[in-house]
Every structure is written in structure tokens, then in C-alpha cells.
Design a protein that fits this description.
Number of strands of chain B: 22
Number of helices of chain B: 17
Largest interface: A-B, 28 and 39 residues
Number of helices of chain A: 13
Structural class of chain B: alpha/beta
Shape of chain A: globular
Structural class of chain A: mainly alpha
Distance between the termini of chain B: 50 Å
Largest sheet of chain A: 2 strands, antiparallel
Oligomer: heterodimer
Helix content of chain B: 25-40%
Radius of gyration of chain B: 24 Å
Order of helices and strands of chain A: HHHEEHHEHEEHHHHEHHH
Strand content of chain B: 25-35%
Strand content of chain A: under 5%
Largest sheet of chain B: 6 strands, mixed
Number of strands of chain A: 6
Strand order of the largest sheet of chain A: 1-2
Chain lengths: 327, 500
């Protein structure tokens, strides 16, 4: 029996390192083929691009760990970015009351985050209260949030948001890009939640065996709502970073981001049926996707081929993960 | 006709079978007896082609054979009916019976008419009145089992292996199943029957084969065997079944008045009617009822799992308790060890430590923020020691343990909440005899310390051996409340079968 425990533990370690090894090999291959890859500038560039996906994918990981999924993150990202941008630029005007509310950067950012949280809560509410499968509930939200974004922006980008706001997406702090700081803080918080707190345990418990969790006195609804709310808030954070980096909130921003986030989660070894996986895995998954994107661009691979390669990597990652778990 | 020579099998370095020589007597009911982990299921899976890689030889009608899969074994005439049934729920009865062996017409189309006709013949033979076009999901577990038997018969199986067929079916269905097994024997089929329930083996089997630690320990005619002798072979030691004779005046702990539970849907009948009883401090109350009598629902309702459907009053220590949610029940000092240990009790993918601590994580928190790992570790070590859970470390995953040890983890997770009332639903289902007796001892010890215990069980000997008082349920009502001295297997059964 002890050999089983040992080998499963060993497989876990190998599994953990496996993504890391894959990442290192990937970096070396790209570095050999392109002399632009191993430069500080490119390195920060990759991490800055990865930061948004890391934020979204961390939220997605928590949701997937409860055996859920959130397809709405891309649209939520766009809506929250647009709300932040619009509030920052034009504030709220209520002509009937002759009232104008202006927003500071902090105020606008908080409003964006709050919107994301509420949209996530709404997802969670629909899922727990009406027992709608997460796939369907968030698919609805995907469309609703995109529509709201169009309504809010009237289909036009909101640009020229001021230098202060641009700091979030393009600034540097202590020699590191600000988005990377944000992503790092998000990752650390998520690591803390999943490893050290009751919420984390409950998340794994619900995904591992929802029935057992119910019988253990865990308030399933509350935990799920929390998780979707966190997912929404992190999508909003991504939206604010994207908006700041482009100095513009695009109504069609974030299209397909949910798939990149899910890809990072899956490459990171988190089981889509819940209960098994880690934040670290997801971070590695996101970085692998980022490096791959960057490398393929540096190597002048046609964008069409880029997609094919990315898809193949996702499949390969899952297949390797599977075969490891069987042993 | 079917025999094995020196069969061995290891899983990842752990020996599951160690040189098994087995001989099945044709046209007889051969009972395979052994504790969990003795290797019964592994051996049966080798015989039926589930595990094609093993050492040793299978002899089938005198010839050495090696099955590459269950299909291969089935073609040779050996079929297995697993404990967890292998039917496709939304396909019809006929489609299930012919799954993978569909009959076709000369045109290559499915011959539904013929399949339906044959299905009707099988159903009639098995005394099951059901429409061949009905989905299997609409049948009860016992009926689904009969469909599996029909499948085996349709495949012209000569040897039918049944793994714990009575673990999930009602007494009535058991009687029916035994009649059918008797009929199959009369037709010359060889039955291999795996079970934990000794008394049913004495009623049914012609031969017994006892396994222990991956080897066959002994075999012989059931006629000349005694339960004590078999138990001794299974465990390698003697166990005397002790009977509770404790009577004392008990302080009331839990009082239930007029508890009722409506059906899950609007048109389904009520599950519980006007249930009233008391549980005293230090009392072990056994509840017996057939499947569908409402015994599980009663425990679930007390535990707050059906807040919208229940009515009636619940008092614990004279304090009124509304059956609102499991969290409220836990706070009031009630714990429920559910019937389905894997489906409801454990998170199989997680380690022992997290499984035990899940019910009291809040109390293990430091500053209300994070979990105090040291305290959590201490908790699981304490319970591993106290309940004698066999494991190399608290970090072992629950799925890697045997049934008995898993059940002890579920008990540990509930004892950790320091309950006053412990509800046990089939606490010893599917676990080996040693662990069973350990759990009985634990229950007596807890009761001696003042805990009130309600145990639902479908094993009469267990009810009689452990309880101080016996409640009998039938069709959602209490039909008897007997001190254990006045209860016998037949008197309990009589109340369980009675119609209101």
C-alpha cells in the first residue's frame, strides 16, 4: 500500500514539474530559433501580455475546481473595461436632476470591479437558485454582457483616458510592469485561499463530492456564489488592464478570452470535473500559452498556423496529464 | 469445469492474489466468502476477463484458456454481474439485454420484434412484469439486477458470477432473487456467489470457498459448515457475537413528535407519516425497515436535509429544533453517517486529514482567516489512533483505503463535531467482519459515554446484536417499538412487512 502512496506522490511531483519542464524546453527551442526571445524587453512583454490571462484564469480555476465553468469572462471583461473608461472620461450625468458625478481613477476602477463582482454573483445566483448548469448560465451571461457593452458604448470605443489611468496597463513599478504586479498579487491571494483557508477547502470539497459537502454542513450556494463573484471581479480586473494598455475600451474586447483562460486551466492539470487542480498549474499553463504566442510571432509563423499549434499543445498537455494519472 | 491453477495478480507491487487454486462445482451455487481485500473481487474479475493480465492458468472445461476481455469470457459462457450494475439507464429493457449482441434481420436492420419477443420470454421466466420497451432507469435496483441476469442468460452463460447481489435490494427482492438462483441451478447453471452475509449463504449455497489475504483458505460443503467455523476461517480468529442486555432508565435526549415528510414531487406520495419517538441519553436505537420504508428519509429529515417538505416537531434536550439545514443540525449536536459512504460520506480524491476536518474547519481556524494545520493534523492523528484506522499516513487519499477504514473516516469526521445524537445509516454495509465488530464496540463505548445513537440497518442480526431498543418502519410509518429483549428476527420482520 505504501508503494502506491509513494508512486502517486511521485507522479504528482513529476506532474508538477512536467509543465515546468515543458515550459523550459519551449523557451530553449524558441530562444535557439530566434535571438530576440531571450531579451529583457521581450521577457517583460510576454509577462505583461500573460498578466491578463493569468487574472482571468485564476478566477476560472476556482470555478472549475467546484466543477463549474464561466464562459462569460470575455464579455464581462469588455463591459467592466467600458464602464471604467466611460465613468472616468465622462462621469455620470443626470440632466433631469441637474446632477453630475465625476470619477477619480480609483473610483472608476472600483466601479468596474464592482460591476464584475455583481455580474459574477448573478451567474452564481442563477446557477444555485435555479439549478441551471454553469455552462448554460454563463453562456447566457456571455451574450447579455456583450449586449450591455454595446449598449453602454453605443458600439464605439471609448478612448483617451488620461495618463494616470494608463499607468495601470503600461506603467512600471520597481522595474516590473504594473500588470505583472497585479497578476502576482492575484496569484498570491488565490494560492493563500486555496491552500490555507476554509473557503479553499470547501471549493475542493464541492468539486470533489458535492453530496458529501452538503452533508458536511457546507452551504454550497454561498461558496459557489463567492467563487463566481471572484471570477467576475478578476475578469473585471483583466478588463481594466486591457483598457488601460490600449488607452481605449473596445466594445469587442475580450472576445474568446474565456477559451484562453480555460486552456490555461486545463494545461495546468486542473480537472474539468472539479476537485483536483492547482493555481500554480494554471499560472504555468497561462505562461506556456503566452510564450507560445510570443514565440510563434517572433518566428513569423502565420497566424493561421499559430492557432493550429496552440490547439495541438492543449490536446498534448491533457493527453500527457491523463496518461500520468493512470499509472 | 471452471478451475484456476496458481493464479497470482499484483497491483503496483501490492499482491492481491497469491497462487489461488480454485475449483468450482458445476451446477452448484458456489459461495466465495472473505473479508474486504481478501481478493474475491479480483479473482472474479480475472475469471470474467476484466483483468486479462495475471499469472497462472484458468482451466475451462479442462482446457487452459486466457480471456482477453469480458466479451471473450462471455462468449466462452462466463458472465459477471457486478455490484454496481452495468446497464444503460435510458435504453429500454430489450435494448439493454441485447446490447452489443443485437439481433438483425436479413436486411441488416435491427430485428426489434424478435428482440422484444425474446425479452418477454426472459421477463416471464424471471417473474418480472415489465414492458420490454420501458427504460431500465424506471426499474428498481432489484429489478435491474434481474435484467442483468437476463442479459447473462441471453448470452447463454454457463457460469454466472454475482458480486454482492443483495447489498442494495429489499428483503422481498432477495427472496425473489434466491428463487431465481435456485431455478438456474436446477437448469444446471453454475453460480458463483460473493457475499458478506453469512446467513443468506447458508440459505442458498451448496459450496463455500473462504478467501483470506489473496489465497483460498478452505472450502467445503455448506451442509457441514457452521457460521462460527467459517468466520474463524475468514478472520483467522474466534469472535463471539455478544448481545446487549443493558436496560436503564434513560434521560430523554431527542424527542420527535409527528414528523412527516411530503413526496419530492407534487404528485408523489408522502414518505413519512406521523412519526413520534424518543431517544434517551446513552441509548442505541435500532431502526429496521425494508427498502422504501422511509428509514433513510427519517434520518435525513432529522438532519435537516428536507426543510421544505417536512412537518412536525423536534426537540433536543427539550430545546425545539427546526429541521432547517445540515449546518443547523450539526450545531444542535446531531451527526449523520450516510448510507452511501463513497457517494455521500467521503471526498475520495482528498486525503484522510481533509476528510476528517471538513466538518469542523471553522473551529480549526486561526484568527478566523486560515486553517491551523498543526491542530488539524493533531485531530486526524487522534482519530486515526482512536478508531484504529489502518493507514501509513494521514496524507493518504480516502480512495486508497479499504471499505472498513473508509467508514471509520466518515465516523471520525462526525465524531469530530462532538455530537450528542449520532445517526448511522447502514454503518457496516460492505465492510469486513473485523471492522464491523470494531464499529459495534465503538458504538457501545460512545453510548456508555452518554451519546444517543440511532442506527438504521437492514441486517437483522446486527439490529439485534447492537440495539437497546428496536423501531420498525413500514411504508413511512412506525409499526413497532420493541425493547431488544422482546424482539426476534421474525417479530421484527412481521412488523416490517405489515400493511397499514
Amino acid at each position: 500500500m505504501s508503494t502506491i502512496a509513494l508512486s502517486s506522490k511521485r507522479a504528482q511531483y513529476i506532474g508538477r514539474f512536467q509543465s515546468l519542464i515543458a515550459l523550459v524546453v519551449l523557451c530553449i527551442v524558441i530562444g535557439v530559433l530566434s535571438d530576440k526571445f531571450f531579451t529583457a524587453g521581450n521577457g517583460w512583454n510576454v509577462l505583461r501580455q500573460v498578466a491578463v490571462n493569468v487574472c482571468i484564469a485564476v478566477g476560472m480555476t476556482l470555478i472549475v475546481l467546484t466543477a463549474g465553468i464561466d464562459l462569460s469572462v470575455g464579455s464581462v471583461l469588455a463591459l467592466c473595461g467600458a464602464i471604467t473608461a466611460e465613468l472616468l472620461k465622462n462621469g455620470i450625468e443626470l440632466p433631469s436632476n441637474n446632477l453630475f458625478i465625476g470619477f477619480t481613477i480609483l473610483g472608476a476602477v472600483l466601479a468596474g470591479l464592482l460591476t464584475g463582482t455583481l455580474l459574477g454573483l448573478f451567474n452564481g445566483f442563477i446557477i444555485t437558485r435555479f439549478r441551471v448548469p454553469p455552462f448554460v448560465a454563463t453562456l447566457g451571461m456571455l451574450t447579455i454582457a456583450r449586449g450591455l457593452t454595446m449598449l453602454w458604448t453605443k458600439g464605439h470605443p471609448v478612448s483617451n483616458l488620461g495618463d494616470g489611468f494608463l499607468y495601470i496597463g503600461t506603467g512600471w513599478f520597481l522595474g516590473v510592469p504594473v500588470p505583472v504586479w497585479i497578476a502576482a498579487i492575484v496569484v498570491l491571494l488565490a494560492l493563500f485561499i486555496t491552500r490555507q483557508t476554509r473557503l479553499g477547502r470547501y471549493i475542493y470539497a464541492i468539486g470533489g463530492n458535492e453530496q458529501a459537502a452538503v452533508l458536511s454542513g457546507i452551504h454550497i450556494g454561498k461558496i459557489k456564489m463567492t467563487v463566481y463573484a471572484i471570477g467576475g471581479a478578476l475578469a473585471a480586473a483583466g478588463g481594466i488592464i486591457v483598457t488601460s494598455r490600449l488607452d481605449s475600451a473596445q466594445p469587442n474586447a475580450g472576445t474568446g478570452y474565456e477559451l484562453d483562460a480555460i486552456a490555461a486551466v486545463v494545461i495546468g492539470g486542473t480537472s474539468l470535473s472539479g476537485g483536483r487542480g492547482s493555481i500554480w498549474g494554471t499560472v504555468l499553463g497561462a505562461v506556456i500559452i503566452g510564450v507560445l504566442n510570443n514565440g510563434l510571432v517572433l518566428l513569423n509563423v502565420s497566424p493561421f498556423w499559430q492557432q493550429v499549434v496552440k490547439g495541438a499543445v492543449i490536446l498534448a498537455a491533457v493527453i500527457i496529464d491523463r496518461s500520468n494519472k493512470k499509472d | 469445469m471452471l478451475a484456476t491453477k496458481n493464479i497470482s495478480k499484483t497491483f503496483a507491487g501490492v499482491t492481491a492474489l497469491n497462487g489461488v487454486d480454485l475449483e468450482l462445482h458445476p451446477g452448484k451455487v458456489n459461495a466465495i466468502i472473505g473479508e474486504n481485500g481478501a481478493g474475491k473481487s479480483t479473482l472474479m474479475k480475472i475469471l470474467s476477463g476484466v483483468y486479462p493480465d495475471y499469472e497462472g492458468t484458468i482451466l475451462w472445461q479442462g482446457q487452459p484458456v486466457r480471456f482477453s476481455g469480458t466479451r471473450d469470457a462471455e462468449q466462452a459462457g462466463i458472465a459477471i454481474i457486478h455490484q454496481e450494475l452495468n446497464l444503460v439507464p435510458y435504453l429500454s429493457i430489450a435494448e439493454n439485454i441485447f446490447l452489443g449482441r443485437e439481433l438483425t434481420t436479413a436486411w441488416g436492420m435491427l430485428d426489434k420484434k424478435e428482440m422484444r419477443r425474446k425479452t418477454r420470454v426472459w421477463l416471464e421466466k424471471l417473474k418480472l412484469s415489465a414492458d420490454p420497451d420501458h427504460p431500465v432507469a424506471a426499474l428498481k435496483v432489484g429489478e435491474q439486477q434481474l435484467i442483468e441476469i437476463a442479459r447473462a442468460l441471453q448470452a447463454d452463460a454457463q457460469v454466472i458470477i454475482m458480486d454482492e447481489p443483495t447489498s442494495a435490494i429489499s428483503e422481498k427482492e432477495i427472496v425473489n432473487l434466491f428463487a431465481i438462483i435456485g431455478g438456474l441451478r436446477a437448469e444446471g447453471k453454475t453460480i458463483v456467489y460473493i457475499s458478506h452475509k453469512l446467513n443468506e449463504l447458508f440459505a442458498l449455497a451448496d459450496r463455500y470457498i473462504v478467501m483470506r489475504d489473496g489465497s483460498v483458505i478452505g472450502s467445503g460443503d455448506m451442509q457441514h459448515a457452521t457460521p462460527e467455523a467459517i468466520i474463524q476461517k475468514m478472520t483467522g480468529r474466534k469472535i463471539d457475537q455478544q448481545r446487549n442486555e443493558r436496560t436503564s432508565s434513560l434521560q430523554p435526549l431527542l424527542q420527535i413528535k409527528d414528523l412527516a415528510l411530503r413526496g419530492a414531487q407534487r404528485n408523489t406520495p408522502a414518505r413519512l407519516h406521523g412519526i413520534s419517538f424518543q431517544l434517551g441519553k446513552g441509548e442505541i436505537l435500532g431502526i429496521y425497515g425494508l427498502m422504501g420504508s422511509g428509514r433513510t428519509e427519517l434520518l435525513e429529515t432529522i438532519f435537516g436535509l428536507h426543510p421544505r417538505r417536512c412537518a412536525g416537531e423536534l426537540f433536543i434536550n427539550n430545546q425545539r429544533l427546526s429541521c432547517g439545514s445540515p449546518a443547523m443540525a450539526i450545531r444542535a449536536g446531531i451527526a449523520l453517517v450516510p448510507e452511501d459512504r463513497k457517494g455521500q460520506g467521503l471526498i475520495l480524491d482528498q486525503d484522510i486529514r481533509s476528510n476528517i476536518s471538513i466538518t469542523i474547519l471553522q473551529q480549526l481556524e486561526k484568527w478566523g482567516i486560515f486553517i491551523n494545520r498543526a491542530k488539524e493534523m493533531q485531530l486526524s492523528r487522534d482519530y486515526i489512533q482512536r478508531l484504529a484506522i489502518k493507514t501509513s499516513s494521514p496524507y493518504k487519499k480516502a480512495c486508497e483505503l479499504s471499505g472498513g477504514n473508509q467508514q471509520k473516516i466518515v465516523l471520525a469526521k462526525w465524531l469530530a463535531t462532538r455530537p450528542q445524537v449520532l445517526l448511522l445509516d447502514e454503518p457496516t454495509r460492505g465492510i469486513d467482519i473485523n471492522a464491523k465488530y470494531e464499529i459495534y464496540d465503538l458504538m457501545r463505548q460512545l453510548a456508555a459515554d452518554g451519546m444517543g445513537i440511532i442506527m438504521v440497518s437492514s441486517e437483522l442480526p446486527e439490529i439485534l446484536a447492537v440495539s437497546d431498543r428496536v423501531l420498525v418502519m413500514a411504508e413511512g410509518r412506525l409499526t413497532a417499538d420493541l425493547p431488544v429483549q422482546d424482539a426476534t428476527e421474525s417479530s421484527i420482520l412481521k412488523h416490517a412487512i405489515q400493511k397499514n
